[in-house]
Known about the structure:
The chain has helices at 8-16, 58-61, 64-75, 109-118; strands at 19-25, 35-42, 47-51, 94-96, 100-101. Strands 1, 2, 3, 4 and 5 form a five-stranded antiparallel sheet that branches. The longest helix has 12 residues, at 64-75. 28% of the residues lie in helices and 20% in strands.
Amino acid sequence: MKTMVDDPQYRQTMMWGPQYRWVLFIPDPFVPSEIVVGALLSTEDRIISIKRSPIPCPACLGGPDRHALLEFALRDLTAPLRFERLPLSMGPHFKLSREFPVPPLVPDPEAWLRGLLLGERRTI
């Protein structure tokens, strides 16, 4: 039986505030490695996608084919429909991390998450 606490929108808005998930790229399914290439941020009224820029070079990903796959799939991250899953068009080389809460003292969750993703140092 489903309860209100099971509803993601209720949990996000009523209990924990904004939450985020990392978008992970798996260049080779036979090698245990994941590369953070983006993030989804769930706020009270919308879902925001943030893409890593620049993306890793082809040599870092294992070749130009994987680099092209990453570039192509990140285009589909512009308007995610749900916080719980990625667009199906992104394919099996991508997955979402678990949910993480944005610290309560962060005044601008989007800028804070963008700073984390892009490696900028920020203080709360």
